[in-house]
Amino acid sequence: MNFHFPSTGTTKAIIFSFSRKLGLGSILAFVAGLVNSVGFLGFGQFVSHVSGHATFAAVAYSKHYYLLALTSFSALFFFILGASLTALLMKGKTIEDVNVSVSLPLFLEAILLTYVTFGTIYYSDLQLTYDSYGHANYYFVLSFAMGLQNAVLRKKQGAHVRTTHMTGTATDIGVALGSALVWGIRSLYEHIRLWKNKEDMLHAGIVLVDSIKVVYTKSRVERLFLHVITLVSFGVGAVLGTFGFLNYHFIILILPIVILFIISTFEVVNRRRKIQIEMNKNERK
Q1: Mind telling me which residue stretches traverse the membrane in this protein (predicted)?
Q2: Residue 203 — pLDDT band, cuts 50, 70, 90?
Q3: Engineering a disulfide at 61: which of 56, 69, 96, 278 sits with its beta carbon 3.0 to 4.6 angstroms away?
Q4: 236 contacts 34 by C-beta, under 8 angstroms
Q5: Is 187 part of any domain?
Q6: CA atoms within 13 A on the CB side of 136
Q7: CB of 257 within 8 A of CB of 113?
């Protein structure tokens, strides 16, 4: 099996793009896991599960809890608004574009989390129930913030690295593993079927290596690794968010706020550095 590698310049671009998505994906998944667990413990509903919003709204409506149903449906609407605003702030570009910056949406997300953190200090119970939904504004803000974040790592052709909910990520992991297993077994079977004598069996090691190469190619290991790290990061964030909320209430959101501010600052500095490099190149010409 022959493998064709891209040129050095292209390889560097691919590595940078992958490492950037891996870094941002894992950090933002951690943030989302933490925020989601805090939202669930604080309001009784997850803030980033669009399918959950729709289901809960339908159930509440069927039980004649119309305002509660409207609250949950509104959260879905705010999630969509957040994603739309990210697309506007990024000027329609995607994370794969060279000159794109994600500083604005992440900075805005940090501001929104700050609003929720300090706005909920004086409340001990913000659970959304059929007779208590007076502080749903904080719930909407968190849903809006998660919509902002989830659209940040959008890629070309509509695909994206999901950071606020893991259903699609878990599906991608399962599909990659299943595809790798099928193609690996098929490759191994084809080699065994073509063996005509015992001498061919001496090449069993080579056959095994070829099968492993097929598994590596078909599973797109770099993507599989990205999805696994994203899923683990989300889980770690959720666990930390749970323990943090039980001990510090919404104050635990200060952690993702600091993380988002750091990322935003780094993106701004990196953006200015690139602009300066381009200006220096133009001056030399």
Answers
A1: 22-44, 64-90, 102-124, 136-153, 224-244, 250-269
A2: low
A3: 69
A4: no
A5: no
A6: 19
A7: yes
